[in-house]
Every structure is written in C-alpha cells, then in structure tokens.
Write a structure and sequence with these properties.
- The protein is an alpha+beta fold.
- The chain has one domain.
- 26% of the residues lie in helices and 23% in strands.
- The protein contains two helices and five strands.
- A three-stranded antiparallel beta sheet has the order 3-4-5. Strands 1-2 form a two-stranded antiparallel ribbon.
- A hairpin with a 2-residue loop joins strand 1 and strand 2.
- The mean pLDDT is 87.
C-alpha cells in the first residue's frame, strides 16, 4: 500500500498521470488539438486538467472552462440511460427486443429485394 500522500481518495496519483500521457500522445498525433479531463470519485474531483490547445495555429492553451462544440449527444445520452436501466435490473442483455418493442415480434428475413 502506498503512503497516503501517494493517494487521493483511494486513487493512486501515478495512475492519474497516465491520463496526461494518453492525452498528450493524442495531441502529438493530431488526433485532437486538446481536451479537458475530469475524474471524480465519491463526489470529489481528484483530477481536472486542460491539455493541448484551444487555437492550435496560435498555440493558445486550452483552459479548463473551455466551451466545446458537440454535434450530437443522442448516442451518449441513450447509452447512459440504457446502462442505468440495466444496473437497476430492468432488462437483461440477452432479452429479446420484442419484449420491449412489440413491432419486433414475428420478424422475417428479406430474401430478395426488387427482383
């Protein structure tokens, strides 16, 4: 076990430094100009950092309170909702879809199209 100074709320400080490495690699490989990362545990923020650039051409550093343009969050929000329902035991991963969407009952396979 590491001394208390090497841990933040039960998280090893060294493991948080891996985030810097992954983010900086993505920035160096031009996968992203920058990112803001927040890790929380038990309602407390243990890591909150901006890495990379807000304006890569002018090398303007990204700030933690930067505003990002996000095109679509439908999949992310739906995924979180489904995971919450799964955690509550509302369905099992191998349940037939027809249990929840009756229109999927008695499905058939299309053998030919326009022929």
């Amino acid at each position: 076990m590491l001394p208390a100074s090497d841990q933040i709320i039960g998280i090893h400080v060294a493991s948080l430094s891996v985030i810097d490495s992954i983010a900086n690699d993505a920035i160096k490989q031009h996968a992203t100009p920058g990112c803001v990362v927040l890790v929380a545990k038990d309602g407390k923020i243990v890591y909150y950092k901006a890495l990379g650039y807000d304006d890569i051409d002018n090398k303007t550093a990204l700030k933690r309170d930067a505003i990002f343009r996000i095109a679509s969050q439908t999949k992310a929000i739906t995924s979180v909702a489904v995971l919450m329902l799964y955690e509550e035991g509302k369905f099992q991963l191998d349940d037939p879809v027809a249990n929840y969407i009756p229109e999927f009952r008695n499905m058939t396979v299309l053998e030919k199209f326009n022929k």
